[in-house]
Task: inverse folding
């Protein structure tokens, strides 16, 4: 319906030529008002509070009333057009959020597709007021709005609008408060389900669980960024088992694998904000080359650097340190060249263990499993075996167990030099015992690596391994450092025995983890196994200096005891055994400690109510998590702060595999715990990610920063 | 561990996916909706034969051996006015043509739509605006525009002397109608032309085009 109206176009052209840079400028009044009209669009600045209070977060909106047949644009305008922008001029210490965009409408004009609004739209913004405001004064909010309005033709327009809000001790809702809060609650919600994307040849495929939207007659994915898809193509929707799949042709700049793709998913009129990792193309098509991954947000070199630093810090973790301390004592004897060989063997052990870990992760990933750092702790069998390993190491350090040849060389007297195989396995052992710990800097690097193609993942893992190996390697290759170590003497034996205690402590902790995974029967099995192992050690010890016949009998009995222990493993209860009762127990326990169990439903409910929420994603096997809870989250100071600010504390326990927690981790580009999120008050607020190592101060200052609530 | 159960079901999933992928591929041949063809970078640019504003007919082939700039335009679009009113595009046209580059303005507005003009008007507009393209191509059917996937005015494409498409996208990096932003923007086309003149590869070969939509007839 092309209507050519020459007089109108001429006048537009004349105005546009006169004031090209300001578009259709409004007659500049002495002081700007809260509304303006351009002929095509009536704009108004409205506030949810007619009176504001110090420290309040005020919800305001730019309302556009658009003439029939005209439209303005969403944040990604599509093939042409320009999003509306608001440039705020605010008094000191007052800040404005970005625009919270309502779900747009799709406009197809011939082969061009746009996303925007017609008739009426409210572009919401939160204005954060400081505590320092004085009641009796007023705050002036000035907004320069720029927008493009199009029918067939397009007109860039601009208006400067202002609101003056009186400050009082408490806020008063305005007549527009209900309209604004309705607009706020109808904003696209953060998806509570796990969507994923992959580029399959020339198509972008977005998938989400059927459970999230049982019906899907019509679906649309609108990416936030340019170039991800060809907007004009009609997406094709189909169902693949438990997932809906939406396919659309890729645009000029397809989403690179490993990056996060953000946008809106619209299904049958409902809109969700989705943030999803872009996976590699599916198996039948060859994986994209490394060139694609290099465009990723973090960058391979940065990730490798972070991994290296993380690896270095891992050396100080409670399980790793005793192993290395014992190993380092070996440098008190022997030649420099021997030390170097030991250092290299140890490094090789660490690197090969990390490569193996990387290979397992890759295999799990290609099988579609959800993976993360510390994933092996989801397996009770792994936890059980590690508990026994810690116990054996403890026995060995305490001198109750003499392992021939020395698994890690630490069972032998310190005077004898352990072999290269011993050093190699110490490296493997260091890796195994390091995995429950997450060092600072590791989270980002691991998350990056896990979303990358094989070679990049390996590069990051090997950097982490190299970081772990580095202190020992440096000590091995640098005699000057060795000379700074204390002189050998009987104290070494004492130290060795003392270091048995951290090992026993680690074994106890693992039994505790297992108790949560496999219940009382799991505890029975792990402890019985320990008795059998101790029995084997004792039989071997008492018989080793006896006659040949008794020696053989002893060895056989020891072997039988060990086999008995191993035979217990299959009877370990399945992972979900007794889940209902234990999760009920944990809910009761949780309530007593002032937190609630995490569920996506509870989180979105609280977010919809605009309440502040603190989310702690943790696991019993994650030492870093436990330390943070002990030194920061469970302290009186933090608990009081939670109560004072009305923060709901949600705790997600990832001790056992839980896809809902994995989904939340993924949303924040993480692959493992811990993850601490703080959602400040206000339904539109986005999560703030806290560091992986917490102090009470970090938590309370994060709470304070987001203190003010929309009332 | 539950991952192992996933692993064992893997081959079944793959084969089912492969079947679905094949079906999807077949379906995509018959995809509905008016999707623009996308001229591909590093591929031969779509050939055309077009009427010019001065009543001649030119083909892309006839410019082999020269760098060719295709600029989709619509003199009434505020984004075009930004770059003509400020003299930005006219200056670039003069600079490029002085170095032997062929600059073709293309008007794909359908009859009765904004920006649709006859040859003499197109020539007069350019004279008034101080613009200096080599030729103005009149494409009221939208055929050339659609074969390149031109979406906005302005939208620019650069074809190298071998006839290969080496650039597609915006005139610069700041997608507004404000003249003040020209100086702050990364001048993609200007940079691409100087890189090509120096025998280098274009750094930003695919950028976001911005402006009014092209007023194709339906």
Result:
């Amino acid at each position: 319906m092309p209507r050519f109206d020459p007089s109108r176009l001429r006048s537009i052209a004349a105005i546009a030529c006169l004031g090209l840079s300001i578009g259709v400028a409004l007659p500049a009044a002495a002081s700007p008002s809260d509304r303006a009209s351009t002929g095509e669009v009536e704009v108004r600045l409205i506030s949810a509070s007619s009176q504001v209070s110090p420290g309040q977060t005020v919800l305001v909106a730019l309302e556009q009333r658009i003439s029939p047949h005209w439209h303005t644009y969403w944040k990604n305008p599509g093939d042409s057009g320009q999003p509306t922008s608001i440039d705020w001029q605010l008094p000191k210490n007052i800040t404005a959020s970005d625009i919270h965009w309502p779900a747009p409408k799709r406009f197809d004009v011939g082969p061009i597709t746009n996303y925007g609004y017609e008739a009426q739209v409210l572009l919401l913004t939160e204005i954060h007021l400081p505590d320092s405001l004085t009641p009796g004064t007023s705050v002036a909010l000035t907004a320069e709005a720029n927008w493009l309005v199009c029918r067939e033709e397009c007109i860039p327009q601009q208006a400067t609008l202002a609101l003056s809000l009186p400050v009082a001790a408490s806020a008063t809702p305005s007549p527009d408060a209900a309209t604004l809060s309705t607009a706020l609650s109808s904003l696209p919600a953060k998806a509570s389900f796990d969507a994923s994307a992959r580029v399959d040849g020339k198509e972008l495929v977005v998938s989400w669980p059927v459970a999230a939207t049982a019906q899907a007659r019509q679906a649309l994915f609108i990416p936030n960024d340019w170039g991800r898809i060809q907007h004009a193509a009609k997406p094709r929707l189909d169902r693949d088992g438990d997932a809906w799949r939406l396919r659309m042709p890729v645009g000029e700049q397809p989403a690179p694998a490993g990056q996060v793709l953000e946008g809106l998913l619209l299904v049958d009129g409902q809109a969700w904000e989705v943030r999803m990792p872009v996976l590699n193309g599916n198996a039948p098509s060859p994986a994209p080359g490394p060139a694609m991954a290099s465009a990723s947000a973090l960058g391979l070199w940065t990730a490798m650097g972070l991994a290296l630093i993380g690896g270095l810090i891992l050396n100080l973790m409670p399980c790793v340190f005793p192993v290395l301390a014992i190993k380092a004592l070996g440098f008190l004897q022997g030649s420099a060249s021997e030390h170097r060989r030991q250092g290299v063997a140890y490094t090789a052990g660490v690197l090969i263990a990390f490569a193996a870990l990387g290979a397992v992760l890759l295999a799990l990933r290609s099988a579609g499993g959800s993976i993360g750092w510390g994933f092996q702790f989801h397996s009770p069998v792994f936890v059980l075996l590690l508990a026994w390993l810690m116990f054996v190491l403890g026995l060995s350090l305490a001198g109750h167990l003499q392992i021939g040849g020395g698994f890690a060389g630490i069972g032998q007297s310190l005077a004898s030099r352990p072999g290269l195989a011993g050093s190699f396995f110490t490296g493997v052992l260091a890796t195994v015992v390091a995995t429950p710990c997450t060092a600072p800097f590791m989270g980002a690097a691991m998350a990056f690596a896990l979303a990358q193609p094989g070679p990049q993942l390996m590069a990051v893992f090997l950097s982490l391994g190299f970081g772990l190996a580095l202190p020992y390697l440096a000590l091995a290759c640098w005699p000057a450092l060795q000379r700074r170590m204390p002189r050998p003497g009987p104290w070494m034996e004492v130290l060795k025995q003392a270091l048995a205690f951290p090992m026993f402590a680690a074994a106890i902790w693992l039994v505790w983890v297992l108790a949560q995974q496999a219940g009382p029967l799991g505890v029975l099995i792990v402890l019985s196994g320990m008795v059998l192992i101790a029995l084997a050690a004792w039989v071997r010890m008492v018989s080793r200096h006896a006659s040949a016949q008794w020696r053989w009998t002893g060895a056989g009995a020891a072997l039988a005891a060990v086999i008995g222990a191993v035979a217990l493993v299959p009877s370990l209860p399945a992972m979900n055994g007794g889940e209902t009762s234990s999760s009920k127990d944990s809910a009761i326990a949780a309530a007593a400690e002032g937190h609630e169990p995490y569920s996506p439903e509870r989180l979105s409910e609280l977010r919809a109510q605009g309440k502040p929420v603190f989310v702690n994603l943790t696991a019993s096997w994650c030492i870093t998590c436990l330390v943070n809870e002990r030194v920061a989250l469970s302290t009186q100071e933090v608990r009081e702060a939670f109560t004072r600010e009305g923060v709901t504390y949600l705790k997600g326990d990832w001790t056992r595999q839980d896809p809902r927690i994995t989904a939340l981790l993924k949303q924040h580009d993480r692959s493992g715990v811990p993850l601490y999120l703080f959602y400040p008050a206000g339904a539109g607020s986005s999560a703030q990610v806290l560091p992986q190592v917490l102090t009470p101060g970090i938590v309370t200052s994060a709470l304070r920063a987001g203190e003010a609530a929309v009332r | 561990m539950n991952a192992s159960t996933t692993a064992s079901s893997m081959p079944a999933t793959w084969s089912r996916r492969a079947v679905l992928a094949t079906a999807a591929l077949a379906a995509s041949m018959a995809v509905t909706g008016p999707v623009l063809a996308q001229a591909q970078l590093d591929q031969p640019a779509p050939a055309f034969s077009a009427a010019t504003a001065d009543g001649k007919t030119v083909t892309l082939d006839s410019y082999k051996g020269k760098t060719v700039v295709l600029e989709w335009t619509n003199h009434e679009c505020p984004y075009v006015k930004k770059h003509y009113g400020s003299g930005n595009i006219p200056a670039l046209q003069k600079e490029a043509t002085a170095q032997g580059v062929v600059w073709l303005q293309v008007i794909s507005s359908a009859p009765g739509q904004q920006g649709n003009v006859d040859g003499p008007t197109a020539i007069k507009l350019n004279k008034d605006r101080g613009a200096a393209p080599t030729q103005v191509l009149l494409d009221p059917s939208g055929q050339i525009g659609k074969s390149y996937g031109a979406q906005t005015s302005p939208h620019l494409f650069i074809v190298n002397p071998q006839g290969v498409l080496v650039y597609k996208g915006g005139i610069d990096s700041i997608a507004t109608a404000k003249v003040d932003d020209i100086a702050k923007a990364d001048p993609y086309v200007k940079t691409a032309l100087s890189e090509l003149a120096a025998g280098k590869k274009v750094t930003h070969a695919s950028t976001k085009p911005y402006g009014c939509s092209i007023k194709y007839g339906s």
About this structure: The longest strand of chain B covers residues 102-107. Chain B touches chain A through 58 residues (CB under 8 Å). Chain B has two domains: 1-32, 37-213. Chain B is about 35% helix and 15% strand.
